[in-house]
Amino acid sequence: MISKTLMAASTRPIILAILSRGRDYGYSIIQKVKSASGGGMDWSDGMLYPVLQRMEMDRLIRSEWIAIDGGRPRHYYHITDLGRQALSADLTSWRKILQAMIHFSQPLPASE
Amino acid sequence: MFDLETAIREWKKEFGRYESFEDGPVADMELHLRDAHEACMNEGLGAEEAFRKAVYRIGTAERLAAEYQKNRELALDRRFARFLPALLWNYFKVARRRIIRHKGYSFINIAGLAAGMTCCLLTVLYVMQESGYDRFHSKAERIFRVVLGEKEAGMPTNANGSLAIGPALKKDFPEIVECVRLKKSGQGERIFVGHRDKKFYEDKFFFASPGFFSVFDFPLRSGDPKTALREPNSIVITEDMARKYFPGREAMGKTLYADPANEGKPIPFLVTGIAANVPADSHVHFDFLATFDRRAEDESNFGAIYQNYTYVLLERKEAAAALQSKLHSFLLRHWSAPWYDLSLQPLPDIRLHSHLRSEIEPNGDVTYILAFSMIALCIVAIACINYANLATARTMQRSKEIGIRKALGASRSQLIRQFFGESLTVSFLSGLLAAAVTVSILPFFNQLSGKDLSAASLLHPALGMAWLAMILTLGLISGFFPALFLSRLQPGRKASHGSPSRESFFRKALVTVQFALSIMTISGAFLSVRQMDYIKNKDLGFDREGMIAVTLNASARPAYGALRREWLAIPGVRSAATSEYVPTRGSKHLNFSFEGNAHPVELVVYDIDKDFPSTYSLRLLAGTPIKKALDTNSGNEFMISESALQRIGYPSAEAAIGKAVQIENVHGFISAVVNDMHIYSLHQGPSPTIYFIGPVKSHKYISLRLHSGSLPRTLQEITRIWKKMVPEYPLDYFFINESFLKLHENDVKVSRLINHFSILSMAIACLGLFGLGMYTIEQRTKEIAIRKILGASLTGIVARLSREFIQWVLLANLIAWPAAFFLMRRWLQDFAFRTRIHLEIFIFSGLLALVIAMMTIIIPTFRAARANPVDSLRYE
Hints:
The structure holds two protein chains of two kinds.
Chain A: H1 4-20, E1 24-25, H2 26-36, H3 45-57, E2 61-66, E3 74-79, H4 81-105
Antiparallel strand pairs in A: 1-3, 2-3
Helix pairs in contact in A: 1-4
Chain B: H1 4-16, H2 23-42, H3 47-58, H4 61-81, H5 88-101, H6 103-131, E1 143-150, H7 165-172, E2 176-184, E3 191-195, E4 198-202, E5 205-208, H8 212-215, E6 220-222, E7 234-238, H9 239-245, E8 255-259, E9 267-275, E10 288-291, E11 308-314, H10 319-334, E12 340-346, H11 350-353, H12 366-393, H13 395-407, H14 412-449, H15 461-486, H16 502-537, E13 547-551, H17 560-568, E14 573-579, E15 588-594, E16 601-608, H18 612-615, E17 620-623, E18 636-641, H19 642-648, H20 653-656, E19 660-663, E20 666-674, E21 689-693, E22 701-706, H21 711-725, E23 733-735, H22 736-742, H23 745-779, H24 781-789, H25 794-828, H26 839-866, H27 869-873
Parallel strand pairs in B: 5-10, 7-9, 16-21, 18-20
Antiparallel strand pairs in B: 1-11, 1-12, 2-5, 2-11, 3-4, 3-8, 6-9, 7-10, 8-9, 13-22, 13-23, 14-22, 15-16, 15-19, 17-20, 18-21, 19-20
Helix pairs in contact in B: 2-3, 5-6, 5-14, 6-12, 6-14, 6-15, 6-23, 12-15, 12-16, 12-23, 14-15, 16-23, 16-25, 16-26, 17-21, 23-26, 25-26
């Protein structure tokens, strides 16, 4: 089970990454995260929205209400330029961490 | 039957309980709920079950509200932080947190500083009004009053002068744009004014020259300021007088009758203007302004000095100095042997800097302004010391916080800025509280001080700047020592409890200074009470108890003989006399020549009847009482006062008897010498006086000495007899004692203010002592518990804990007494007659401070001593 700390730390880059592929709304974001992690990352649905609000306050994303095909208006989120920069920085950090994790997870050479 | 819409509506109500939700988030979550519900139903769940699952997945409103609340606070922080440098907002937040967490100490600090600031604001308002007198006139800087000074004296002596001065000045000097003459009707006696059944005696009746309203800005509600005082027998009255004499009717164009000369023949005056009521900050307050009666005085006689006041409006303020230098030669041009010199007195200076003879009204005193300012500063100093003391005393509680900050990299300057931030926050909150308190107690302050300060005065830009400057200054001053000490603490350092340290000595010094300041203000209060008592009880040279003076107008003079007989028949009336003047109501000054003295001597002149000395209980020091009325022959009898004796230069009362006296063509001799009689306030010395007996027709007052036991009935009877004999005029009388005390109204008001301020200073000092005591006792709770266990008695513990504080208070007396003595002596110098500064004032002040300090400390000490040692020593 993924720890809460790790989930919290990865929330922002994951949301930014999802939105970097196109605008999206809250429920869809939750479903994509669940699907991409094979159910391992099961975010609390309601807690996504305060996080989205905080990211919007930080100007990493922006939102608008859009009704598509005359349907119910939804609250769509878009990534901003600042958000793309933050995503790039976060991905760089995570790659470095992953690189270190991979390096230290390889078996030690057998001692002679 | 499950209905989704109803269920969603009920679910949304839960969110409405939390103010951190706005419509946006709730709408977001509703959409999410619907999507999740649809997804669950697609998985095969029933509608209700799908709804419950979706709700569960979203989470509780309470948990979500907490998250949204964090975002709200962050948004607020960022909004303020945009205007503030980095970390400053953090300082404010830390300060706010500390204030909320330590409510008791915060209350002591904020209340103390707010009290000090309130005193400052009130003092500033008072000083602003006092020093702003007459500045509402747009031409104030160019208006000067022409005052007289005795040639030898070199300084102005009289505010009044001759009617001849003004027109001659305007004619001779082109730099004088306009000249205004103002005459106060009578010399202290009240004037009869009437319209139909409205008949009163008024004391603010003036005559003014036509240019009055072009020089002074007293707006007219009705009438033309250019012409209102042009025609003879015109009168301008104030709004209050219009309502008094013409209630519910238009006053303009109506006739008002007045008897300014007290001849018993009221003159009709046409109302040609209604003026706004004169504001409080004017050196002259009129109710009636009439045109001059040109027959009343000789306008060419420079030597005829009556209640006339001359004002000149110059083209430029700067012309005053040059004009002043020409006034001596001006007098010589118009008067062959002038016995006075003229000076120009700036209009704005009259209120605080003019204490000449015959002022229109008693003026203020710059000494009082200084006294108030000092007391307000004392109170503020006490409050600042409280803050500094409490902040440094609670050092140990902050050592952990300071240690962590330093360990995380905070520099000393950052810590200093933090502590200043805290003190400025407290100062700002105190400033807000002080402004609110000032507005609410302004009516009470007005009552005490006799002012009419309004809350609108607080909106003056200068006051706003002063308020901000005060907050900043007090915040920095009160935070200085805590910032200095607390920023020096090292991480990991442990301070020992109860052992002498530099901080402990510093706190004792601060408390000592606090109490020294309080003892000083209390001593000042005691002294001012003493001086007021002295004024009330001082021997004025005549018996003032039960003495009334009745205005004797021309109508009543023919009936005086009958009035006197009937009044003396009233059991409550002991004696009666007539005179031109009575103490506190004006005087006349003339020059007399005396045998053996080369130069004429100016003396106060009292024209009296033969019963005057006995009615006023004057003591005969030498000679025989005067009995003969004055006439133009020789052999006239004069009586002089003791100070007249000294002014003339006779070595003793006996040596003066029989000495020749002359004034113009009247010759006589000194028949008697009597004690001095105070006719003015005790700010002035006794007036050298000469008495002679004159006819009743020249007398304006009847003095009656009454038995104090039956005053109301006696007064009723006196009034009844007057109404019978003089039905057309109401009776006008006053008590000499009340009139005398009224001369000291300002002193009484100042004394009351000083008393209240001193109480406040002691209260703030005690507040600080209480807080400090509470804190110290908190720190020694374990020590107290152990002493109890080891057998110490309750009184022993209380005595031990109290002793330390009491020592500081006793030490404060050593500082306070000399300083208070010096200041009190300076204040008393303004009184020609003053009480002595007795040692008991200081002893009593010191004891009072000690008793109050002990009561402040003993209550929490007693409570701590009574606590259960088990509770105190329990390890947590």
